[in-house]
Amino acid sequence: MVRPQKNRLVSVNPDISYFKPRGIPMLDLEEVRLTIDEHEALRLADLLNLSHEDAGRRMGVSRATFGRIIQKARRAVADAIINARALKIDGGNYLIVDDSRIFACLDCQNAWEEPRGTGRPKACPACAGKHLRRISLKEGDEARRDLSKPIAPHVITGQKEGDRSS
């Protein structure tokens, strides 16, 4: 029995889904498939120039697995370019992850985004308050809609109105 494939972590969902040779109608082209996780592997290894170890860590897979993903991706791109085929980008086993984090100030209830890898903020950018809390993506949906508006206190404290125990 084959083990199910683990979802690969992907930071960028491609805006396009097709590349094709110019001047050849789609009806006359064969299609090569590049999965979303293979697209991410190309981005990490060839565009951002990350090592297989670092890129694999970002995608949530081992270095060896990343090596297999990037090899398959490069083969698909080479096939499309060399044999004048359309490259269709879709599918695969992946999970879109966010490259930013949402923080909220307990003093003024301001919420803002910080990019990953920058460390914990020292103070609120609005009031310079030091009482900060990171908000999960689910909690942050309300804050993410419009970061200029204050968010509900229960989102920041993690408690509903009637849930507070003294």
Based on CA atoms alone, the radius of gyration comes out at: 22 Å
Number of domains: 2
Proportion of helical residues: 25-40%
* Structural class label: alpha/beta
What is the mean predicted local confidence, pLDDT? 82
**Total helix count?**
5
Strand arrangement across the biggest beta sheet: 2-4-3
Low-confidence stretches: 138-149, 153-166
- Shape descriptor reads elongated
Give the total of beta strands: 8
Q: What is the terminal-to-terminal distance?
A: 54 Å
Strand content: 15-25%
Order of helices and strands: EEEHHHEEEEEHH
Largest sheet: 3 strands, mixed
Plain-language structure description:
- The longest helix has 20 residues.
- Helix 1 runs antiparallel to helix 2, helix 1 crosses helix 3 and helix 2 crosses helix 3.
- The chain has two domains: 89 residues, no CATH class; 60 residues, no CATH class.
- The protein has 166 residues and is α/β, with parallel strands linked by helices.
- The protein is 33% helix and 19% strand.
- The strands form three sheets. The protein has a three-stranded mixed beta sheet with strand order 2-4-3.
- It is built from five helices and eight strands.
